[in-house]
Amino acid sequence: MSTPDVDVDVNQNQNQNKNVKAEDILCPLAEYEECDFSKLLEKPRLLNIDRQRSLDERSLSELSIGISPRHATRAIDLNSSRFFEQLDSICSPLGRRSGFSTPRSQIGFDPHPMVAEAWEALRRSLVYFRGQPVGTIAALDNTEENLNYDQVFVRDFVPSALAFLMNGEPEIVKNFILKTLRLQSWEKKIDRFQLGEGVMPASFKVLHDPVRNNETLIADFGESAIGRVAPVDSGFWWIILLRAYTKSTGDTSLAELPECQKGMRLILSLCLSEGFDTFPTLLCADGCCMIDRRMGVYGYPIEIQALFFMALRCALLLLKQDDEGKEFIERIVKRLHALSYHMRSYFWLDLKQLNDIYRFKTEEYSHTAVNKFNVMPDSLPEWVFDFMPVYGGYFIGNVSPARMDFRWFCLGNCIAILSSLATPEQSTAIMDLIESRWEELVGEMPLKVCYPAMETHEWRIITGCDPKNTRWSYHNGGSWPVLLWLLTAACVKIGRPQIARRAIEIAEARLLKDHWPEYYDGKLGRYIGKQSRKAQTWSIAGYLVAKMMLEDPSHLGMIAIEEDKQMKPILRRSNSWTL
């Protein structure tokens, strides 16, 4: 099944770029990331990288877009000259670093005592292949059976990669991108069925042969996973991470490699292929993403749709304008318009939309139907009426024929903010919801992966009596510290960092003392998860990224994309459904 691992030689391309100034070949972030998608088809597109700063001043000044008057006094003053003076004061001659006393940091901040411990733990998790670091192990908990926690997971490595990029250590991220790219080219079979060529692995492991003094990579594309489901999110995270590396370092040579260009096209081919779908969203099986067990997320889960949207926007910035690239850019632009309309119209829920659904008529026919998916108002769960605040809203978990999953999913909503799938008004409403429902979504340990938990008969039917996903545990309403980095990035993007700071302070009271658990159980997240691994790497890395993001908001540029201001404003669903 496996093929020999061959390193891609990028030294020649890197040497050619060493002496080229960023301003000679690159344009400001806002010029292309805030343009109309369709304009990318009309003129050559340059990669928008700033070699000295993770996010240019123009974009930083717009982070407060969408802040309602009610929150104006709480927003960061990103336009003040003092703000940029403070940012400039913490820059090293080689660019921005984390501001923490790590081995690579040159700045004399007095960090929280947990920071040094976290960096030591993160470095202990490094995995090496033939002498080069290629990722971080999922967990270093020697008190439990390894299972697959001794592997490098694509989704798990993302916060680790961001931490190293923010600290000025991009080499491990480049190695990871190239190694997973090589694994993508392997033949992938489950039983007698061959997977698509573009599928990225869920994880990989380095096998050491002391007899032959050799090392090999073993990848899992879903054939060893619980339920044998291929990871739909891995390819999206790979594209997002490639853009983060490019944005952070200014090294365009990696993304411009023919192998990386082909890897992106293979991933996009899987997602943009035509079929029987009547929606622009991606149809997925249960267990295809972070929630990798049966949890009723089959269909069109918000996590996948948000990651899909963000990966498409990142690909627009990374694909070359050659013949093959132009073809994909045209398909991406069309899909982005359709996807953003669909998600903002049909997945968005606030008090008014909830009231509209409550009053839906059913069995409507023809294009004039208001209740397009024939959702039964009696299927509305009782909890959602109390959960929905007067000010606030969120993207619900799933929408498909006669079915709406009203559960809150943290990752999908945070990615919607970071990718600008959510409008500025929707982004603000999501933060309003988090503040209004702080006890439910944050509690005593941030952050609920989904809310609320399924119980009794519903739990038995939907999870299949899964003993790991009992109520308020694991993916069924468990609290996951790794989500801190996503919350923090979203808060910084819309100018409300005090929300993230409050959540981080709650986590700091326990995370180190509890030895960095994978997740917490209980309605408030009070208890270490019953099967939670200790020394969980992405819990460690998520904390570090959150801290560094608050200390230096310019890091946001590598993971956030500004709104496309030229797009036609979306119609609210109460209007669009009657057209």
Automatic annotation (TrEMBL):
Report the EC number(s), separated by commas if there are several. Answer: 3.2.1.26
Tell me the function of this protein: Invertase that cleaves sucrose into glucose and fructose.
Q: Which organism is it from?
A: Gossypium arboreum (Tree cotton)
User: What GO terms describe the biological role, i.e. biological process, of this protein?
Assistant: sucrose catabolic process
Q: What is this protein called?
A: Alkaline/neutral invertase
Q: Does the keyword Hydrolase apply?
A: yes
Q: Which reaction does it catalyse?
A: Hydrolysis of terminal non-reducing beta-D-fructofuranoside residues in beta-D-fructofuranosides
Lineage, broadest ranks? Eukaryota, Viridiplantae, Streptophyta, Embryophyta, Tracheophyta
Give any GO molecular function from the UniProt entry. Answer: sucrose alpha-glucosidase activity
Q: Which UniProt keywords apply?
A: Carbohydrate metabolism, Glycosidase, Hydrolase
What is the enzyme's main class?
A: hydrolase
Q: Which family does it belong to?
A: Belongs to the glycosyl hydrolase 100 family.
